[in-house]
Predict the 3D structure of the following.
Amino acid sequence: MTQPTPHPQQTALSLAASGVPVLPLRRGKVPFGNCPACAGNACGGRPNMKTPGPCRCPGVCHAWAAATTDPAVIVSPAWASAWRQAVCVGYHPGGAGLTVVDLDDADAIAWARTALPATRTVATTRGEHWIYRGAMASRNAVRPGVDIKSAMAYARYLGPGTGTMTDLPDAVRALTAKAPSPARPAPHAAIRLTGGGDGACPHRTPTYLERGIAMAEQQITAARASIHATVYRTFLAVLSRHGGCGCLTDTHITRLFTAAQVKGETLRHCADAWANARTTLGM
């Protein structure tokens, strides 16, 4: 016998119990509009829109930032009207430590099968969601028919999918890197990424540097408080150990900046922290 489709609120509670921040989506697969107190962002938004969770007002506000894992909020009277109108459940991938590669059509799927490592796959109306373990900055239209949904974005929940989820690969991270304009310097060039290559190189193997960057990403990601200070200290440690020989590349720094931005830092804050760390070390 065919099992009845769970109500969106029940699906949301199940996802929240597994640590996935959720929110109701209305017709058109979009979030509910801000409540009157937040119309036009009059409330100032959630604290800098940096982290998911309910704002201090009635209703489901501020799109992806409303996503929550708190069952008391999900079943609260403030969200009741939204659930009655909801057509499906959305979730904040970055808040769950995930990245969704949204493939809109058959051509995008064919490209992914040759360019990206296999991972958990969820069928969508027109294409597929490929879900990886790890968060990063979101960006739409990274190539024809391909969007990246992770930090500060939402995705529609379409079921558990099939296949084994794998770690977020550099091939996906690289999709959000903008090519430098011929008339402009390369990304982050204004803050000088490395020490110029005149120091002793401690990197006997590429694995040594890779391990250092991965540990730095993990330290930023694990921070629960004092994010500014943690990012600065981590940048300082990376530069003191790896910044004097010229081995650091734009790709390495982009990974660190992305980890910091997922925790709520702005690109400007990242650049300032990097520059301050360099100044402290006399680079």
User: Anything to note?
Assistant: Residues 206-222 form the longest helix (17 residues).
